[in-house]
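User: Can you recover a sequence for this backbone? Please restate the input before giving your answer.

Assistant: Of course. Working from this structure:
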């Protein structure tokens, strides 16, 4: 179908600059004026023009919108509106300023620094609180929607400059209302945070999210990776073995109370874990105790120390991106902007700037059939293994909406560069033709 004109208005939101895009959607910044006269800025995810009439993609869009629209909790990124304006299907999400927990953790490791233990426990308690609100979602008749996030990990925990904690990216969420289904044998989620039952292909429930959060907490207090190994196969093997080192043997004086919480969350058998995320939240909050009120300020101070000046740059970018309409080129923010779901951003636009490839062990998990084949005894392999082909960087899905470390520059994407080259070539051709005509006279 022919490309539709870029949207000027989506719902109540005026469309600003394009800030990113993926295989199924384009993302713009939008703004609206509230009743009190203040300005509201949002991220607008719009299904791509060529997919607007594709029934499969439309059902996937509806899947996301139905789940996201019901998520309303301070510790979950908020979906403000979704609908159709003209031919454009869109989802409006709150625009957050900050960094992912993965960014914070990585930088702390580089600096040889550590995450304060109490802050890590409080942070994971807030994620557990947001998770419980999603797990408890029910339809209009009161029946559970059986929502499971399936991708709880540091890259999907967003920390704001104001000291808030938000669970993001429900693109892999499993729920009863989903119209589109996963193929049999496909395990979804980041490999190092899978629960043992996922790695073994067994039935799953909300307790896989508790396990993933437990792994995140273990890594937060140790500043080491729990199950990640050099290869996906070795990582899956470590998950299946489910051997969790006792943090008390790694950190002198580590509190027994917190280790008990971590160990229970990471129990190999789901029945031995916390029954609900709220149970985990209560245990963590009890450990943090009277220190809780200062944690918002402590978290905000940590981000300011690790990423100095970023909050001011983000505010400057927001104002610039909403003051002009520039849908044909990308104005990337100075830091990644999170979305409630990135499943529509599974692939980069052909004209997008290249982003960092995901590391093999952080890529989505492969099918169980391929994993089981890798675990098969060597004696059963009759043919020598073929030399693996070099993987293309394009196959690795980006972890965020925009390339990490985009900087302050408002870079144009590849489409604009090609257009400039074509125009320049035309000008050169005209100049040459004129020169030949003059010389001929």
């Amino acid at each position: 179908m022919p490309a539709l004109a870029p949207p000027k208005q989506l719902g109540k939101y005026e469309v600003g600059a394009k800030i990113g895009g993926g295989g199924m959607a384009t993302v713009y910044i939008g703004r609206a004026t509230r009743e009190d006269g203040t300005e509201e800025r949002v991220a607008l995810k719009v299904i791509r023009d060529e997919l607007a009439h594709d029934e499969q993609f439309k059902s996937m869009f509806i899947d996301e919108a139905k789940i996201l629209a019901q998520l309303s909790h301070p510790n979950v990124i908020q979906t403000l509106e979704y609908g159709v304006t003209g031919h454009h299907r869109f989802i409006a999400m709150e625009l957050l300023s900050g960094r992912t927990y993965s960014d914070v953790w990585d930088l702390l490791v580089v600096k040889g620094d550590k995450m304060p233990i109490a802050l890590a426990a409080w942070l994971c308690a807030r994620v557990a609180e947001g998770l419980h609100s999603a797990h408890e979602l029910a339809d209009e008749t009161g029946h559970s929607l059986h929502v499971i996030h399936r991708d709880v990990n540091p890259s999907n925990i967003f920390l704001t400059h104001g000291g808030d904690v938000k669970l993001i990216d429900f693109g892999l969420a499993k729920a009863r209302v989903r119209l589109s289904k996963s193929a049999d044998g496909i395990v979804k989620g980041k490999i190092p945070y899978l629960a043992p039952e996922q790695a073994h292909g067994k039935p799953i429930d909300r307790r896989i999210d508790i396990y993933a959060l437990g792994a995140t907490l273990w890594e937060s207090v140790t500043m080491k990776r729990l199950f990640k190994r050099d290869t996906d196969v070795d990582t899956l093997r470590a998950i299946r073995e489910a051997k969790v080192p006792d943090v008390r043997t790694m950190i002198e004086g580590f509190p027994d109370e917190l280790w008990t919480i971590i160990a229970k969350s990471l129990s190999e058998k789901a029945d031995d874990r916390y029954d609900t995320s709220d149970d985990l939240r209560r245990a963590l909050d009890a450990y943090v105790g009277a220190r809780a009120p200062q944690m918002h300020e402590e978290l905000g101070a940590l981000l300011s120390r690790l990423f100095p000046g970023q909050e001011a740059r983000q505010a400057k970018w927001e104002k610039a991106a909403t003051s002009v309409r520039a849908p044909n080129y990308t104005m990337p923010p100075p830091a990644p902007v999170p979305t409630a779901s990135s499943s529509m951003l599974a692939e980069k636009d052909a004209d997008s700037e290249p982003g960092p490839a995901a590391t093999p062990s952080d890529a989505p998990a492969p099918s169980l059939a391929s994993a089981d084949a890798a675990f098969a005894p060597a004696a059963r392999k009759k043919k020598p293994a073929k030399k693996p082909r070099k993987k293309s960087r394009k196959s690795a899905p980006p972890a965020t909406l925009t390339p990490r470390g985009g900087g302050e520059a408002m870079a144009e994407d590849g489409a604009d560069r090609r257009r400039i080259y074509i125009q320049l070539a035309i000008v050169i051709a005209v100049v040459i033709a004129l020169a030949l005509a003059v010389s001929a006279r």
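That completes the design. Residues 344-361, 378-383, 390-416 have pLDDT under 50 and may be disordered.
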